[in-house]
Amino acid sequence: MLICDNLVLRQDDFTLSADVAFASGKVTALIGPSGAGKSTLLSALAGFLTPVAGRVLWQGEDLTGLAPGARPISAIFQDNNLFPHLTISQNVGLGLRPALRLSQSEVAAVDQALASVGLAGLGNRKPGALSGGQQSRAALARVLLAQRPIVVLDEPFAALGPGLKDDMLDIVRATLADAGRTLLMVTHDPADAKRIADQAVFVADGTVSSPVATAAFFDDPSPALAAYLG
Amino acid sequence: MAQRAVAIAPRWPGAAAAALVLVLTIGTLAAVGWRAEWQRGLSPADWAAIRFTLTQALVSAGISVLLAIPVARALARRQFRGRSALITLMGAPFLLPTVVAVIGLLAVFGRGGMVNGALAWLGLPTITIFGFHGVVLAHVFFNLPLAIRLILQGWLAIPAERFRLAASLNMPVGRLLEWPMLRAVVPGVFLVIFLICLTSFAVALTLGGGPRATTVELAIYQALRFDFDLGRAALLAAVQFGLCVVAAVVVWRLTALGGMGAGLDRVVQRWDLRWPALDYLMIGLVAAFLLAPLAMVVWRGVPGLALMPDSIWAAAGRSVVVAICSALLCVGMALALAMRGGRMAAVVGVMPLAASGLVVGTGAFLLVYQFINPARLALPITVLVNATLALPFALRAIGQAVDGINRDFGRLGASLGLSGWAWVRIVVLPRIRRPLGFGAGLAAALSMGDLGVITLFAGEAEQTLPLAMYRLMGAYRMEAAAGAALLLLGLSLAAFWLCDQGGRGNADL
Description:
The complex is a heterodimer of chains A (230) and B (509).
Chain A: E1 2-11, E2 14-22, E3 27-31, H1 38-46, E4 53-58, E5 61-62, E6 73-76, H2 88-93, H3 104-116, H4 132-146, E7 150-154, H5 162-177, E8 182-187, H6 190-196, E9 199-204, E10 207-208, E11 212-213, H7 214-219, H8 223-229
Parallel strand pairs in A: 3-8, 3-9, 6-7, 7-8
Antiparallel strand pairs in A: 1-2, 1-4, 4-5, 9-10, 9-11
Chain B: H1 12-35, H2 44-77, H3 83-89, H4 98-109, H5 114-121, H6 132-156, H7 160-169, H8 173-198, H9 202-207, H10 216-225, H11 230-254, H12 276-305, H13 311-340, H14 342-350, H15 357-368, H16 378-416, H17 420-431, H18 433-448, H19 453-457, H20 465-474, H21 478-504
Helix pairs in contact in B: 1-11, 1-13, 1-14, 1-15, 2-6, 2-8, 2-12, 4-12, 4-21, 6-8, 8-11, 10-11, 11-15, 12-21, 13-14, 13-16, 13-18, 13-20, 13-21, 15-16, 16-17, 16-18, 18-21, 20-21
């Protein structure tokens, strides 16, 4: 269970409070108007933003004071998920060893992770030589390899076309979600949530609603959500 | 707000670099202030030096700017073969060792030079390059290209749409577009050059001198080196520091030396051009003025190479070592400060601009002379001072790159747990190769050609190439000096080129 315990976040003059729990092993979509604080919440969970008050708990352990790299959380951002000057293998290997000194077996694990996202044989290329979809897959391979139980995705595939985006969501579902990781994904698009998420929360007016099963979330929306969905 | 939007880097190297800069700037200044004989006041000769310093700077800046305006205009609106090469060439005086340029200018305007040869052939009286007008001539040679580049930037900053609109409305372009731009840009350019000329030492050392052409820095050198009058040297250093601080503040606010040559390749399309001959005449004259001395360095230098005493090669070896050490130290300090970031690094990074090599050297001399023969420290101090003086330029380039890395990849690095040396090794160093190479090249070239602090310390056994060359000139061995000038020119340009190219390599940024 990932718990935001009376969490209060502040960025400039914007305030978000969250008192919500996300069940382990579920995919949760964070939906809401832009500027409502979806990305702010993910930043705080990943450790980039220190909360003004409250705690973040994972399986009972307090994460609040931990550095981003010390949390059981992997992140995929909107962009800049890969270092352009490193090869794809090196980028993926960072998930295993941040100092990039890989043993033989770890190199094999990198190759295996690349194969599992359909990038077998492309490890020696640099990100610039790959398409946008392939770059997203490489970032995904790194998250797979890092073995951290929670994955936060901040509109990760927004730059891809609709077809590619759906492919990526399916891969996320097949690799990360089915392996039992706890996923939180920010999205603008209800179709994304319907495609991948077990449950959804609505982030608006400085608060985060409790998770609701995705089908019920959209079939029986709250008035505020209904207004947002239009 | 953000807890760790950047990966954690070790903090002690930044602190060490800052401490070194503080010792060399504030520390040496304190030594100067403590040793200065304030009660003695300034003698008539000192006032003459201050007056000369200000006058020559005023005249040099005025001439540079007045000549630069028509040339910049011509370059802004004419497209011709070799234009971008000419603009690149105008960045070169920044790297050109002063003594080398002086040798070139002597070959053109000196006693046995081209101009006097022509005048004698025409039966006209010859001119002399030493004294006030020689100093001004050399300063114009160095700063006219800078003025042209800065004013050209102003011209190219006028949006092309304005020229199109002006053409369609038949508006007077000069009065409505160009004059307002010049009014905004030219005062700043004038000030920058005025202040650069205030702190120039080697030109006055080689072309000035005597009671009527001595700058404050030259007076410091003479007080220290010839009279060993430490109180007077320190007092003059304090005066020079006052001038330098004003210089530094204004230069830092008004110039953008970071963008060496970026974006000047463009030509704005114009519809109001009638007199191409005039433009090309201006461009041709300036190109000749800049190229003739350089060509003469090569022309006279080649036969001179064979006439150089063996001591020149030893001096060249010392200069190469000094250049390598100070380049490494400079980029090391710049990287440490850039990684540490924050206000402290920014302040420390600009402090050397307020320091003149002679003032720092005087302070260092005062600090060490009681304990050790200063000549033994000549090379280490030259390395330290030159690395520090080049630091602001290296830090500007490297700091921007490091900020960009933190902005783009700081979160990724932090979430992967990349920190400390792994972050520096895996992400920072590969991504800042270009500014690192540029900064190292700049520091190497500047210290290779430095004829400042070394003059205060070095004896015969510690002389670097510029100093050895200056001593050859002082002994009227001009052929050998010309050979040394060519060697020095080659070494300086090679040092910059090697470092800069090394940084360009095959980096996927």
